[in-house]
Design a protein that fits this description.
With 251 residues, this protein is mainly alpha-helical. The protein contains 8 helices and 2 strands, in the order ααααβααβαα. Strands 1-2 form a two-stranded antiparallel ribbon.
């Protein structure tokens, strides 16, 4: 009970602290990664997006830090998982905030993901399914699978990630000036990249929880986890310009 109370307090503080003004350098960094021109019309879109996402992600990270040792295995929440749950929360909050006004007619959805990010998206989905099937298979034999609840949770998160990425592609595009539309699509692309790459790291952990590794398994896990995390970060933050208009193609 004390851990949950401390979590609520820290999450509230993190949300309040990171809900403040966004530094112009942070907006410039976002614009460079998305090959986006910062104009008077685009700047408010990016600023509002960054403020919302960092508030939710910081809250999730805070929850992961507090609950790292606050819940019994296998339900312990780690900082990365807490941060990624914050990513999901931010996207749900942004998706629920539909802007009024007319929308543009687009012949095809924009291509939000780079080829590298698409690899992580579908690779993470394959890991989640494989881990879930492996865990269920072991459980059916009667052997205990302590990590199965975690595997089931990560599989559910993967399903939610796929739905959110699809939603980002199919949401109506506002009928607005070109710079505003470019900013809206840039924020959606950045969200899609974060969801795709972050979920792959989480899915890897979930798949591992479904199998009983030998003593030397921790060493192998460590050797794979670090390169995977670094590769996911690079794929999720690399520059990616979106094609807007009739030339766009679906991922």
């Amino acid at each position: 009970m004390l851990s949950l109370a401390a979590t609520a307090v820290l999450m509230t503080f993190a949300a309040w602290y990171w809900s403040g003004p966004v530094h112009p350098q942070r907006i410039s960094l976002f614009a460079r990664r998305q090959a986006l021109a910062v104009t008077p019309g685009a700047e408010p879109v990016v600023r509002r997006y960054l403020r919302t996402t960092r508030m939710w992600r910081a809250s999730g990270l805070a929850a992961g830090l507090v609950l790292l040792t606050g819940l019994p295995d296998p339900l312990t929440l780690d900082p990365f998982s807490g941060w990624f749950l914050g990513v999901l929360g931010a996207e749900l909050a942004i998706g629920a905030r539909r802007e009024p006004g007319p929308v543009a007619a687009t012949p095809t959805p924009p291509r939000l993901l780079s080829p590298q990010a698409r690899f992580f998206l579908y690779g993470g989905a394959a890991l989640s399914v494989s881990g879930l099937l492996a865990g269920i298979g072991v459980a059916v034999t009667g052997r205990p699978v302590p990590g199965l609840p975690w595997t089931v949770m990560t599989a559910a998160v993967t399903g939610g990630t796929l739905l959110l990425v699809r939603s980002l592609r199919l949401r109506p595009i506002p009928a607005a000036p070109a710079d505003v539309v470019a900013a809206v699509l840039a924020t959606r692309s950045r969200s899609a990249h974060t969801l795709a790459t972050g979920n792959a790291v989480l899915a890897f952990a979930g798949a591992l929880a479904a199998v009983n590794l030998p003593v030397w398994g921790d060493l192998v896990t460590g050797l794979v986890s670090l390169p995977l995390t670094v590769a996911a970060f690079l794929a999720g933050t690399r520059q990616w310009a979106i094609t807007v208009g009739p030339a766009a193609t679906p991922p």
